[in-house]
Amino acid sequence: MRETLGGSTVVAADYFRSYSVVGLLALVGVLFIAVAFGAGRLLRPVVPTPEKLLTYECGVDPVGEGWAHTQVRYYVYAFLYVIFAVDSIFLFPWATVFAAPGYGATTLVEMFVFLGFLAVGLLYAYKKGVLAWT
């Protein structure tokens, strides 16, 4: 017979029982992955040839050195895309909050401040010549 102090032992047992289910599922998942990788290692043929050990890149044989020059402007375009994608993600919830009663003026001012920061960033990128495709 357990001695309880106001049912705290029962509550603690239920609390840890729910975590034990999560732990058991995590263990089963890890074991499943380990068995799958182990079976793959045991069943696959191991026949190393020079062609298999050669570096592979998009079906093209590697020629020359491994270092290549990359244009930085492509990273800048990707960065600008991410900025404006985040902007569009913020605009949709803003539109739903703006439609709710009592939030109109405050939400409108906050969004124009946000859009102002983005406009300043876009103006800076334009002045630096980042948006000119050369």
Explain what the structure shows:
It contains four helices and no strands. The protein is an all-alpha fold. α3 runs antiparallel to α4. The longest helix has 36 residues, at 8-43. It is flat. The termini are far apart. The mean pLDDT is 79.
Question: What attributes characterize this protein structure?
Answer:
4 helices, 134 residues, mainly alpha, 0% strand, flat
Structure described in brief:
The protein has 134 residues and is mainly alpha-helical. Helices cover 69% and strands 0% of the residues.
Outline the secondary-structure elements.
Layout (H helix, E strand, L loop, with lengths): L7 H36 L6 H4 L18 H28 L4 H24 L7
Helix pairs in contact: 3-4
Overall, the morphology is flat
Cα Rg: 29 Å
Largest sheet: none
The number of helical elements comes to: 4
Q: Give start-end ranges of low-pLDDT stretches.
A: none
Q: Whole-Å distance between the termini?
A: 82 Å
Average of pLDDT: 79
Portion in beta strands:
under 5%
Number of strands: 0
- Binned, the helix content reads 55-70%
